UniProtKB/TrEMBL annotation:
Pfam families: BTAD, Trans_reg_C. Keywords: DNA-binding, Transcription, Transcription regulation. Residues 1-97 bind DNA. This is BTAD domain-containing putative transcriptional regulator. Residues 1-97 form the OmpR/PhoB-type domain. InterPro entries: AfsR-DnrI-RedD_regulator (IPR051677), BTAD (IPR005158), OmpR/PhoB-type_DNA-bd (IPR001867), Sig_transdc_resp-reg_C-effctor (IPR016032), TPR-like_helical_dom_sf (IPR011990), WH-like_DNA-bd_sf (IPR036388). SMART domains: BTAD, Trans_reg_C. Belongs to the AfsR/DnrI/RedD regulatory family.
Amino acid sequence: MPKIEFCVLGPLQLGDEGRRVHLRSSRQQVVLAALLLSANRMVPVESLITAVWDDHPPDGARHQIHNCVWMLRRRLRDIGVAEAEITGYPAGYAIHLSEWRLDAAVFERRLGEARGLAAMGQVTLAAARLRSALSLWQGPPLSGVPGRIMQREAVQLTERRLSAQEDWIDLEIALGRSAEVTAELYRLIAEQPYRERPRAQLMLALHRSGRTAEALATYRQTRRLYIDELGLEPSPLLKDLEQAILRGDRSLWHTSSVQPPLRHGALGAGYPLDASGATA
């Protein structure tokens, strides 16, 4: 299998694992990141100009983009990744490379494989494939790459990571590993305090681990946070879960998730699943 040579799931880097390098030029960073995020598709020069200078391009911006691409081509040759060819078109540029050379593309492929495995009820393999996908992340995506466009792309990539983590946790809970994922859930909640899905997962994981009092305390803390800081009550997802825990609903011991089939997560598989991997 070809080695990953371009990384955006963390600092922007190029080269194989033994000789990863950073681009010093912020302009080159933005142009390369824009090309990688649309790999094998033409990116108009105007889009590259906006990515580099937002709404305030200088005179001669097109010429500067052309020079930037020329320097990027030379840089790629210097570090031995010439297989990734930057092709010029009348209206823009495209970088052509196998999906295995870009970490974000490998991440998406592994998510797709996990989706297929979960749909077939192979929960253990699906969870392992998601762990493999998440292992590609090296920090905040595109960290250090400037510009409003790159910040927006970073937010979208981060959302993909969070959804994949939450999907992985659903599968781990289905496999009876509730106690093992509680630390990860506390970390996720600290990172994203207003996301409800990890809080629901934490309540379920604590309850399944014999820590029902802590599960109910998590709901009370969440409700207080949402009311104090957002002026909102928790959604029915959390309210219904609290009530199910209070009444000792036995179905909570046979399902991996307290929410309907995933609509926005990376898996999109039919949920809930029981611990054996069959749909409940």
